Amino acid sequence: MGSKVTMNMILRPALLALGLIFAGLAPAAAATTPAETFVQDNMHVGLDILNNKSLSTDARRTQFANFLLSLTDMKRIADFTLGQYRRGASPADLAAFDTAFQNYAVAVYQSYFAKYAGQTLKVTNSQARTADDFIVATQLIDPKDHSGQAPLEVDFRVRTDGGKPVVTDFSVAGIWLALEERDQFTSFLGQNGGNLHALIGHLEDLAKQYRNG
Amino acid sequence: MRALKALILGGCSLLLAGCAATPPSPEALAANDPYEQTNRQTLILNGKIDHYIVVPTVGVYFFLVPDGGRRGVHNFLGNLSLPTIFVNDLLQGEVTRGSQSAARFLINSTLGLAGFFDPAQKMGIPGHGEDFGQTLAVWGAGEGPYLILPFLGPSNPRDAAGLAIDTVIDPTNFIPLKQHLWWSAGREYFTVLDLRAATYQTIQGIQRSSVDYYGSLRSLYRQLRDNEIRNGRPAAAQDLPDF
Q1: Does A180 touch chain B (CB under 8 A)?
Q2: From CA A33, how far away is CA B230, in angstroms rounded?
């Protein structure tokens, strides 16, 4: 059970599928900023992979995982999701967590990719948070949806402080995935005495579950 | 029935606000969730009610009522909420959204056969949600600590108070008492079925992919509410944390 508001609006599966959302083929409005261009240009690559029926399921998953990893800064996201628990962790534990988080994130995103293949993503605008931190707003449009519902709003956080643009977070309907992951990971660690090994084990189990599922 | 629900809401809020059996952890305090342990127990209780009563009932509902029928029920219930949504639109100064709510109610109540159909959507008049909790937020009220209410789920003092107000101002309260009790009970019953049916797979997905379902739900609730309060307008980029 849950409140009307929560029940109506929780869209985490849609949110988690965002790793695949570089699936836009709409001849979108011309992107005008480098961050918008980055998001717009990569949609085509993602779409090609998602819609490539000549690939086996495993090959498609591998290609999409490589594509996703090339566009995101997983280590930065992983570090962020540990919150205050990052400070007390050893370098070896942090490295193990980074690996476990990456495998978890890729496995979860890939489990939902089929739902969004065939949809289009249109860049609508962007705002600069700082000189190297941008929020690119897009809309996810399902050409088969004639219900009249407003398209899903999908935002990408793009950082350029490392030389090349990378995505560090996604949001769907206002929910930022990295924020949600930080909240639940720190909540887990708070309930488990800060035991990072327990979190790593949990992430590894979930990743396996998704790969086999 | 509706007044009773409002009383329960108020009572729950007071009860939970008074609970201080276990000192909150630093992490809970940082998350503005000082009643975390009580909330976690309530979530477990709600989960049991959901698992043993609500979900099986939803299964029967799916079996007995075809998809078109369930959509009709969904539309009808949504139409009944429109007067309350309209009032809250105006209280927030959202004139355009208020006119959309009024138009939807008029069109769907007539052309939509008492709200069972939604011709307004097809005419390009989109639906939206509003409630008094959002109105309080727009007026400047802070959300207060995170709460999990028995039966009702994630909330906070502001949203719980808002829900109580919405319950009291609902126009269906003016139905004469004898019919009103049956009417209210039926409406609540189908509202629960409709809501749970719509969110079954989503909730399952969250539970399946979370390392901490409680923490995940808390984050999702807060972010969703913030988005609703902004009516979907983008948050200020500066509100996002640095990383």
Answers
A1: yes
A2: 26
CB A135 within 8 A of CB A145: no
Cα(A185)–Cα(B94) distance, integer angstroms: 38
* Cβ-nearest to B151 among A1, A77, A135: A1
> Residue for token digits 């269906």?
B172
Task: Burial-class residue B87 by CB neighbours within 10 Å (0-12, 13-18, 19+).
Answer: buried
Q: What is the pLDDT of residue A204?
A: 95
Interchain CB distance below 8 Å, A183 and B219: yes
Q: For chain A, report the end-to-end CA distance as a whole number of angstroms.
A: 26
Residue type, A213: G
Q: Which residues pair with A169 in a beta bridge?
A: A157
Q: What is the pLDDT of residue B161?
A: 96
Nearest to A174 among B206, B218, B224 (CB): B224
Q: Check if B5 contacts A (Cβ < 8 Å).
A: no
**Mapping DSSP to helix (H, G, I), strand (E, B) and coil, where does residue A172 land?**
strand
Tens digits of pLDDT across chain B (243 residues): 454 555 555 555 555 544 445 688 888 998 999 999 999 999 999 999 999 999 999 999 999 999 999 999 999 999 999 999 999 999 999 999 999 999 999 999 999 999 999 999 989 998 999 999 999 999 999 999 999 999 999 999 999 999 999 998 888 777 776 677 777 888 888 888 898 888 888 888 888 889 999 999 999 999 999 999 999 888 888 889 989
User: What are the phi and psi torsion angles at A137 (to 5°)?
Assistant: -95, 135
Binned at pLDDT 50, 70 and 90, residue A192 comes out as: very high
Which DSSP string corresponds to B160-226? HHHHHHHHHH-GGGGS-HHHHHHHHHHHHHHHHHHHHHHHHHHHHHHHHH-S-HHHHHHHHHHHHHH
Chain A to chain B Cβ contacts (< 8 Å): 175
The Cα A148–Cα A125 span in angstroms is 22
CA B158, CA A152: separation in Å to the nearest integer? 28
Question: Alpha-carbon distance B102 to B2, whole Å?
Answer: 23
**Three-state SS at A149:** coil
| Interchain proximity B224–A5, CB inside 8 Å | yes
Q: Is A157 on the interface with B (CB under 8 A)?
A: yes
Interface of A with B in 55-74 (CB under 8 A): none
- The residue with tokens 């690996």 is A99
> What is the model's pLDDT at position B203?
87
Q: What is the ipTM for the molecules in this complex?
A: 0.82
Identify the bridge partners of residue A153 per DSSP, sorted by sequence position: A139
Q: Which residues contact A211 (CB under 8 A, 6 or more apart)?
A: A107
